[in-house]
Amino acid sequence: MSDNAPSLEFLGAARSVTGSKFLARTKKSQVLFECGMFQGLKELRRRNWEKFPMNPSELEAVVLTHAHIDHSGLVPRLTKMGYTGPIYCTPASTELLGLLLPDAGYLQEEEARYANKKGYSRHEPALPLYTREDAQESLKQLKTLDYGKPLEIADGVTITFHPSGHILGSGFVEADIGERRVVISGDIGSYDREVMAAPSDLPGADYVLVESTYGGRSIVSRPVQEQLRERIAPVLDAGGVVVIPAFAIGRTTLVLYHLRKLQERGEIPDVPVYVDSPMATDAVDIYIRYGLEHNLKLDLLRSSNDCPIRAKTMRLIKRVEESKELHGKSGPMIILSASGMIAGGRILHHLKNRGGDPKNLILLVGYQAVGTRGRKLIEGGREIKMFGETHKIRAQVASIQGLSAHGDADDVLRWLGTAKSKPKKAFLVHGEDEGLKAMGERVGAELHWKHHTPHYLEKVYL
Ligand SMILES: [Zn+2]
Hints:
This protein is α/β, with parallel strands linked by helices. It folds into two domains: 7-217 and 405-461, Ribonuclease Z/Hydroxyacylglutathione hydrolase-like (Metallo-beta-lactamase, Chain A, 4-Layer Sandwich); 224-399, Rossmann fold. 29% of the residues lie in helices and 21% in strands. The protein is built from 14 helices and 22 strands. The protein has helices spanning 42-45, 69-72, 75-80, 91-118, 132-139, 224-237, 249-264, 284-289, 298-302, 320-327, 347-354, 373-378, 409-416, 433-447; strands at residues 7-12, 21-25, 30-33, 61-63, 87-89, 142-144, 151-154, 157-163, 171-177, 180-184, 207-211, 241-245, 273-276, 314-317, 333-337, 361-364, 383-386, 389-392, 396-399, 425-429, 451-452, 459-461. Helix 4 runs antiparallel to helix 5 and helix 6 packs across helix 7. The longest helix is centred in the first third of the chain and has 28 residues, at 91-118. 51% of the residues are buried. The structure holds zinc ion. Zinc ion (ZN) is lined by residues 66, 68, 71, 166, 187.
């Protein structure tokens, strides 16, 4: 340890799964890896409002592993607070951020507006963390960098992105920081996927930051389509509405892919499938443009009849008025609407509208962080607070395993096992306490790597 050694500060995703932010300092420069938003518990979300632990105007570069909000969602706040430099990410990430960040700004404006209208905020008046316009403005600072191309982004800091198989554009970062090589995993995908390609091998590094979302758990799930059919078919047959809180584009695409397969085999009826989100976009074009990052066949993607990631009877709902019209329609039908953990967005209105009827089904399709409404539902809670009021949920609630864009512990261990050399240490990030502990045990026992689980705001010298 010396003043000359580069340092790393864990400004988020340290003993939590959200708010990813790692500050690297060398003698000459400061670079921020990830700029994620904290989500879930109120005490975590409050951190989004705090002053950044560094002066944004002194940063030389920002690097994003992928477009998910828990890795990128505070970018507009960082730029608003004075960061004017480049924000590096892959080409597909740039496109996805162009949709996700303005949408995040819009959601916050909407929430603040609603809170002010109903007067339930403790702040007077309620303010958005940033606006759609702030987000749009921040996009101007994005700089794209292709996979496998090293680039010196600051004095003494060179980065290379490698595919991580999580979502389109996701890349783990190989970063030379001063004399040290550090790999920042971002989120790692699975090795066994129908849609996304597998992660690339891990280069040799002195330190590896490892995501631990699934902790030590192996997810052995029954085939996704089987689970979906079992849950969905009876509800549709009875004329009910299936409400699926949808995550960003990647997961929505995956759900549509499986629904399509079930429709093609006649295992669920061809009911209307509404994708209701202000950023509802036809993901097909994006998947065609980034054909190397996934396993889907391009000629099928281009076919209007057989496109594998469009449900047969699908409609994209963009405008609020169209979304409201859905409330008056009766089943059977399927509605996908953001956000996936029911933290905000139009899904709240659908839940309010459909949640009281036992004929309907709320189907959760991904990880539900502590403190979210989705987590509460999964744990059996049936009184959900929305818009400052408590609503009783009488609809059925179920969750589907195996749709996460994250690999499970076996995938992460397999990925770590591809390392060309053993690192000095692994830092376990992006997990909740139990998961981090379990991941640490496996990293120690199976790979014989030293590991450490940093606390929020901890600083280590490399
Ligand atoms: Zn992610």
